[in-house]
Design goal:
Length: 118
């Protein structure tokens, strides 16, 4: 996995309470933060007894509040604004363990449309 400065920008989204008849709550996004986006070889990520596919890793600074149900909105890559922005679902639990020596929270992600109209 690449190392280096976080030259990308992201927003972390959290899902609100679902309102009937929509089973998915509205996603609200925080302020733009620095992040690092990179594609990886497609791999399986264990989620309890299930397995999901991840092909993107997004790193955010330690101390960022992010969960396995977060949506990541990528707004800039390599300091260039994205139009349209891209949305990624976090797959599995964020890696912010002590064994992670990167100084960042590592998120396995996959492209999604959830959150794109919120």
């Amino acid at each position: 996995m690449p190392h280096g400065a976080m030259k990308d920008r992201c927003k972390i989204g959290t899902e609100g309470t679902p309102v009937s008849p929509n089973p998915v709550g509205a996603v609200s996004y925080g302020s733009e933060i620095r992040c690092r986006f990179y594609r990886v070889r497609t791999r399986e990520v264990q989620i309890g007894a299930d397995v999901a596919i991840s092909d993107v890793v997004i790193e955010v600074p330690k101390g960022t509040t992010v969960t396995s149900s977060s949506t990541i909105q990528v707004t800039q890559r390599n300091r260039a604004a994205l139009s349209p922005v891209e949305f990624y679902a976090v797959v599995g639990e964020p890696d912010n363990t002590e064994k992670n020596l990167k100084g960042a929270i590592v998120l396995n992600c996959q492209l999604t449309t959830v959150g794109s109209t919120k």
